[in-house]
Amino acid sequence: MNNSASISYIFSSFIGLTRTCHQRCGYCSFFEEDAPLLSLEDLRKKMIEISSRNATEVVLVSGETPQEYPHIQIELHRNGFSSYTDYLLAACEMALEHNLLPVLSAGYLDEFTAERFVEAGCSVRINLVSSSLSKPGQALEKARGRNPSGGKASIEALHKAGIPYSAGFVVGIGETEEERLKFIREIGRFCTADPYLQDVRIVPFQPGSSCAMSSRPPLPFESIKTVLQVAREAFPVHHISIPPYLFYRYPALAKDGLNDLGSVPILTGDPSYPEFEVPSFETMKARLEKANIVLFERGSLCTPAALNRPEIASALTHTRAIIERRNASGLNLIDNEHCFVCGTRNENGLNIPMKESVKDHTCTFSWTPGPAFQGYAGIVHGGILSTLMDEAMAHAVMNNSIVAVTADMRIRFHRPTPVGIPLKFVATRVGQRKNLHFARASVLMPDGTVLAEAEGRFAEI
Ligand code: SF4
């Protein structure tokens, strides 16, 4: 695993359940006192969407013991739960139903709570701090039980319950360098041989505008390097990651022991750090390849103790097949909502709702080209018509189990297409031979006049 020429990542997705938290960590950009609880209905909608895009895990992010707040208790009862743990258990079950491996990021779990998650099929992310920092004005002044021994107790509880976990080290929140490095070494001795430890995360403090420590500067790069070197010694065989918002430092840090990007929320961003953008998969890949580093996908669980759990068997088989297929294809086709034609997150795109336009391998939609899409005056550019027919045919071919790319296409322009008229696009899959799918598309005027046609072949990946 410790190979500086390759870096792994998990195709993850994050869902914020509630920002309400009974802690008040000074470095936190996530906490909001009156934040609502995500309803089960909304949670299910998000899971369906994430699952349809072939993410392999979902990180359920929440404040710690939010049920201490009355408004959360009311919401829990409204959703039919007698406790927050029951709500989290239902969320884990829902994730597995949608073939997503659930990861809980909900603060420290005590022994009794951990016991309840034994058969939930989840793994857990915990963040450790290396110093108590509970004096007035310090980072953990208002946080109860957030100290080095609280983190260790949480690890012990997870180990005892047999729940896989990821250990994060929050660094740069006011601890001395000596405290920081000593603690990492101590936790290394404590759990590097634990078969339930999945990976290690280094989480350097970043001053978000909404956190109480917004004026504190982030840890210097040299200090992060030292942390990584010490973590690598303390955890010689584990994946060690740094959050995606520090992505631009990855290539340099690979020399110091960084070998993982961890859970990269490509589709959803990270609600814990809303101000820091998660780079697209393509950006990360291109950047790392320039530094001669290969990016490859891994699953969130990696030790035999974590993998041999019957409750995750079905989702695990599904996610492994996806990962193998993506790694083997060399083409990692991730829809991160930035597609020029249909991506809802692409501010310069056309934002045409392609997926909603498909029924029984036929894609139908209308689009009115403005003057920005013209070639000669008043006439729509043939290139944009080709793009839309290509996209429509691809969507006619694809469904939840078919992912395909254009192999070739042929276009015939019958008449000039006028600007400003609502055009109708129709595309249908017409056949298949081995992994090649055939499709046809037309562009029509409102009166049915055919303006252009296309035929294409699409290679299933
Ligand atoms: S860091 Fe976690 S435990 Fe601390 S306030 Fe934020 S959400 Fe709560």
What would you note in describing this structure?
The chain is elongated, with a radius of gyration of 25 Å. The chain folds into two domains: 6-329, Aldolase class I (TIM Barrel, Alpha-Beta Barrel); 355-460, Thiol Ester Dehydrase, Chain A (Roll). Helix content is 30%, strand content 23%. It has 461 residues and is α/β, with parallel strands linked by helices. The protein is built from twelve helices and 15 strands. The strands form two sheets. Strands 1, 2, 3, 4, 5, 6, 7, 8 and 9 form a nine-stranded parallel beta sheet that branches. A six-stranded antiparallel beta sheet has the order 10-11-13-14-15-12, with helices on one face. Helix 6 (177-191) runs parallel beside helix 7. Strand 3, helix 4 and strand 4 form a beta-alpha-beta unit. Bound molecules: iron/sulfur cluster. Iron/sulfur cluster binds at residues 21, 23-25, 28, 30-31, 63-64, 107, 143.
